[in-house]
Each structure stands twice: as structure tokens, then as C-alpha cells.
Amino acid sequence: MEVSGYMLVIILGSALVTVIPRVLPLMLLSRVQLPEWAMRWLHYVPVSVMAAMIGQELWIKNGELELFNLKVLAAVPTLLVAIYTRSLLGTVITGILTLMILRYWLG
């Protein structure tokens, strides 16, 4: 398979744009001792991002807010399994099976 110069530039540019936002902060912040308040703040970033992604997937449909749907109903037992077992595999299986059953019966 032949790679044209244009395609090579696109691949290298994409790699650069992907690596810079990940590596640059790591290089800069690894040499700096962050204050305690910044470390506490950074501690909540992954949870906040995950909550935003899940919330949007659960409650937004076709650009509109939809509070009650099958995904929200499936999220309830999934959340309970996640809280009580702290098992990623159990949580994923619960979510998939619950949504599958709800779609079969209600949907």
C-alpha cells in the first residue's frame, strides 16, 4: 500500500495534535508542586467529565431533554450494582442486560 505525501502529513499532524494536549501538561506539571487546593480540584475532574458524558447520554434525545426513558430506568439498577459491588464488569453486565430486557418488554 502506497502512502502519499499528503496522507503522511495528515497522519503526522493528527498524531501531533493528539500528543501535544496529553504530553505538554504532563511535562509541565511533573516539575511543579501544585498547591493542595489544586490537587483537590483535580481529583474531581474525572468524575465530573464522566458524569457529564453519562448525563448527556441518559437525558438528551434528539437535542431535547427527556427525563424518563429506558436508559434512565436501566441506569438505576446499574448504579446500585456499581455502588454495592464496585465491580466494573458487574456494572457493565447489569447495564447491558437491564437495557436489553427493558427494550424487549417496553420497547
Q: What this model shows, in words?
A:
With about 110 residues, the chain is mainly α. It is about 80% helix and about 5% strand. A two-stranded antiparallel sheet has the order 1-2. A hairpin with a 2-residue loop joins strand 1 and strand 2 (about 65). The radius of gyration is 21 Å and the shape is extended. The termini are far apart. The model has no long low-confidence stretch (mean pLDDT about 90).
Task: Kindly report the spatial arrangement of strands forming the biggest sheet.
Answer: 1-2
Count the strands? 2
Rg from Cα:
21 Å
Tell me the major beta sheet.
Answer: 2 strands, antiparallel
Question: Are there runs of 5+ residues with pLDDT below 50, and where?
Answer: none
Mean pLDDT: 91
Query: What is the terminal separation in angstroms?
Result: 46 Å
Q: SSE string, helix = H, strand = E?
A: HHHEEHH
Instruction: Please identify the structural class as seen in this structure.
Output: mainly alpha
Q: What's the overall geometry?
A: extended
Percentage of residues in helical conformation = over 70%
List keywords for this structure.
2 strands, two-stranded antiparallel sheet, 107 residues
How are the elements arranged and paired?
Blueprint lengths: L4 H25 L6 H8 L1 H15 E2 L2 E2 L4 H16 L2 H19 L1
Antiparallel strand pairs: 1-2
